[in-house]
């Protein structure tokens, strides 16, 4: 599940939201254009700054269902006040909101204001919105705040710096990690390190699977070395560089990517090597990483159960939607680990007795 950032008191928030009809009209004429303020100094936000802004968002979200209370959080003189109120009305599409992250991204002072009214902040507001049709939408908005007084409670929301359109992060069926059904065709790769068994997904990546199967059946991969091996990352194999076979495919040249929302670069995933978009040939790799970098998960908008699975079994989330996943190892990861553990040079080429694919077969699972 998404890690819910602790807001001020280390409590996650889940609140019902107001309907669009509950948002009141702007109570006073707007005058000040915060977008055109002149910056004087910029600061690295310290713990106190972050705590104040986190407290602002905690109280803001807590009171968002009460139009009279939420008005207290808005800068009364902002020229963009109407847009902010429209933003609040837009939140009413959700049954509830859970705050994932709220923090200061930029902190600065501006000219023509006093010492207690010249602080400004651009705050990151990342949340999950639960819709009435049971979808979960992840959004990250950047909100302009102004401190217009001495107290912590004097932070006010003056406008939207950038508003996300949202990405659906509802759970998906992780069939990729299921065992094959009896009678299902599986792929058996025999290597110097042992046997690797995997499932292929022709319904999701038809060209990648067809290319791999037909090249395998004519012996293209037999006796080839795993020429790029990076422990705790992946093992890769394919045609030799600077030879016609480097880019050999059954389609007569490179073919397009086949991305979808159902396949991920979990540990054990089989994926196409490439040199950029739509440059797939015969190179493929097996993800070997037993861990996942949480930073990449935080930067990715993944289905919530896929993120949880990455945390459980490992993988490389940043490869999703960059490389085509077309299969998954279900037996023989110890062989993959053994291949990955070879001593290599700086390019990942094994230094001695590089391990090979001996043969590839396609059989019925029993």
TrEMBL record:
This is peptidylprolyl isomerase. The keyword Isomerase applies. Pfam families: Pro_isomerase. It catalyses: [protein]-peptidylproline (omega=180) = [protein]-peptidylproline (omega=0). It is an enzyme of class 5 (isomerase). GO terms for molecular function: isomerase activity. The keyword Signal applies. Residues 1-25 form the signal peptide.
């Amino acid at each position: 599940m998404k890690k819910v950032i602790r807001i001020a008191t280390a409590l996650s928030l889940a609140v019902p939201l107001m309907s669009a009809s509950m948002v009141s009209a702007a109570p006073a004429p707007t005058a000040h254009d915060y977008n055109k303020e002149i910056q004087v100094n910029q600061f690295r936000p310290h713990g106190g700054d972050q705590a104040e802004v986190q407290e602002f968002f905690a109280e803001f979200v807590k009171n968002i269902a009460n139009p009279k209370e939420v008005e207290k959080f808005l800068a009364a003189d902002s020229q963009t006040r109407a847009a902010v109120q429209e933003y609040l009305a837009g939140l009413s599409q959700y049954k509830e909101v859970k705050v994932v992250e709220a923090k200061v991204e930029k902190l600065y002072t501006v000219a023509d204001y006093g010492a207690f009214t010249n602080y400004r902040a651009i705050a990151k507001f990342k949340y999950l919105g639960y819709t009435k049709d049971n979808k979960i939408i992840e959004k990250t908005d950047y909100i302009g705040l102004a401190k217009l007084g001495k107290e912590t409670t004097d932070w006010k929301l003056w406008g939207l710096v950038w508003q996300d359109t949202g990405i659906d992060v509802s759970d998906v069926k992780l069939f990729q990690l299921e065992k094959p059904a009896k009678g299902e065709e599986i792929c058996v790769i025999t290597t110097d390190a042992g046997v690797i068994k995997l499932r292929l997904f022709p319904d999701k990546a038809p060209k990648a699977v067809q290319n791999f199967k037909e090249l395998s059946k004519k012996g293209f991969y037999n006796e080839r070395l795993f020429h790029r091996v990076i422990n705790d990352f992946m093992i890769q194999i394919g045609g030799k560089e600077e030879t016609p076979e480097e880019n050999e495919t059954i389609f007569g040249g490179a073919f397009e990517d086949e991305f979808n929302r159902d396949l991920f670069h979990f540990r054990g995933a089989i994926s196409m090597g490439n040199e950029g978009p739509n440059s797939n040939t015969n190179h493929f790799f097996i993800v070997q990483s037993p861990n996942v970098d949480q930073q990449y998960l935080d930067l990715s908008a993944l289905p919530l159960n896929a993120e949880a699975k990455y945390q459980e079994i490992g993988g490389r989330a940043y490869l999703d939607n960059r490389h085509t996943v077309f299969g998954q190892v279900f037996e023989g990861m110890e062989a993959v680990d053994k291949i990955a553990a070879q001593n290599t040079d700086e390019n990942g080429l094994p230094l001695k007795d590089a391990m090979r694919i001996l043969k590839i077969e396609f059989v019925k699972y029993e």
